[in-house]
């Protein structure tokens, strides 16, 4: 049973990777916008900014004015990465240090809290409801369940089949809805950095000429 | 009164919708497709939009505006959207959607790019909104005022429809004014001077309503001993095709300036104080024309800042004693990268300068961009959206608002009246020219 589920997790993961690759190829088939204008700034510095300083909460109003949401989002994603790491270790039967488990458990819990906070916000804020579609709720719930089962699994090894089953659902769902942003986020940030870097808008210069 | 646009929507045929979708698809590239696949509907862009902050309705929320374009992308160009549209927010492109696109994408957006800068994913939201505008432009659904501005520019060579002889006469009159002001009969405002170093463009609103801003630039060039020229035709720095989303019209307008550069054999195309004119001609035009320019394109602000730095002009700040604040035009600063030059000039030209907050890349749009000033059907919304800017200005307690953009000037003048701010609104060159020390030798 467990071997079958393990096979299922690996297969669904591969399905996810292949589907996302097809999606990426389809996206690239739209063709690159050629750029002819002479750059004013440094595109590379823009990209470094996009992944570095540009991610800090005080750099954008969207995070500085919504610090709890920013923190929730960061914790959510930290929890997800930790849970994926935990899943890999289970699939390949890698030994976990006993010291490491409480840290992971804590991350799963915080991640779940972060995800649940965002779901709560989406359900109860009228504006958020209006910009949401069923996928927004489904994606959040699937990931929240994945995190909470990862958390319980650290206490209850017998929960492995359920945890694997949720991992299968998660991997199968990734290409369908918004979780696909896991593949596009990095490209979108690169584009952000290139656009503003090339135009000399970002990184912001020190206030002198 | 009959709403002509509404009448047109009712008469929309399936082939029109198909054409709009086709153009929407043609305008999409891998960058925009990636953006459209990345929006997570976090809604954090809300506070970055002056429309949302002042109207508080979901239709003004950038994520909502983006979802209008994204819904169509999903429905027609994605596998999941085609098969389970309701699940992922894919939407039908029909009469109701065209109506909503016009209302939200033209009527609630100035393409200021503040949402793009604040997007947690980094999506170029204003660029996607312009792409959707292109689809509407293809089926002639640009709101009438904006479309007529584009049409006038295409037909008459400038967006105010100024006749060539009137333009030349205005410059001749301004030349006499300049000679009187600098007490030098040799002072000129050169027209069609071949081989000059700079070709200086103007916003047609200047000869029509603000001739003193042309005189100010002429005075600065005179003081710097610059080799420069106007062109008797093809001098319009504005490009309303950028706002309407009509790339063909935008290409034609920008190409005219390129043709003037060729005809005059100048080294640098100098763009007047016009935010979208800089974005269109400095950044977008080479893309529209699919070629690298063999000449420099600069803002007049870069030129004047260089004069001060090189000691080619001298300014006396005590000649501008009133407190001055600066409004950053979105297209020039956030999208154009001209951030510090205007500050450098003002710090040398005025006695008291204070920033409004937030400023530079993070500054709020005044509400005059995106073609809003030309679309009278949305003017009440525009004025309300300008409330943030009015509050920013009031907090500085400045008596003069400087801004390097004529669209912004028009909006700020309206805000001044509407919100009773009691300020003067001037261009940077007007302020700099007023502080000039003319060396008679």
List its traits.
heterodimer; A: 209 residues; mainly alpha; 9 helices; globular; B: 441 residues; 4-stranded parallel beta sheet; 23 helices; 8 strands
Major beta sheet of chain B, specifics?
4 strands, parallel
Report how far apart the termini of chain B are. Answer: 63 Å
Outline the low-pLDDT stretches of chain A.
none
The strand line-up of the biggest sheet of chain B is: 2-1-3-4
Oligomer: heterodimer
- Give the number of helices of chain A: 9
* H/I helix tally of chain B: 23
Q: Radius of gyration of chain B, Cα only, in angstroms? A: 22 Å
- Overall helicity of chain B: 40-55%
Any overview of this molecule?
The complex is a heterodimer of chains A (209) and B (441). Chain A has 209 residues and is mainly α. In chain A, 70% of the residues lie in helices and 0% in strands. Chain A has helices spanning 2-28, 43-51, 61-64, 67-91, 100-124, 126-130, 134-153, 160-173, 181-198. In chain A, helix 1 packs parallel to helix 8, helix 4 packs across helix 5 (100-124) and helix 5 runs antiparallel to helix 7. The longest helix of chain A is centred in the first third of the chain and has 27 residues, at 2-28. Chain A is globular, with a radius of gyration of 20 Å. The model of chain A has no long low-confidence stretch (mean pLDDT 94). Chain B has 23 helices and eight strands. Chain B has helices at 4-10, 14-27, 30-36, 50-55, 62-77, 79-83, 85-88, 95-106, 114-118, 125-138, 144-156, 164-182, 205-209, 211-224, 240-244, 247-264, 275-288, 300-310, 341-349, 379-385, 387-396, 406-418, 428-434; strands spanning 198-200, 228-229, 268-271, 296-299, 323-326, 352-354, 400-402, 424-426. The model of chain B has no long low-confidence stretch (mean pLDDT 96). Chain B is globular, with a radius of gyration of 22 Å. The relative contact order of chain B is 0.11. In chain B, the strands form two sheets. A four-stranded parallel β-sheet of chain B has the order 2-1-3-4. A four-stranded parallel β-sheet of chain B has the order 6-5-7-8, with helices on both faces. With 441 residues, chain B is mainly alpha-helical. The interface between A and B is large, with 63 and 68 residues.
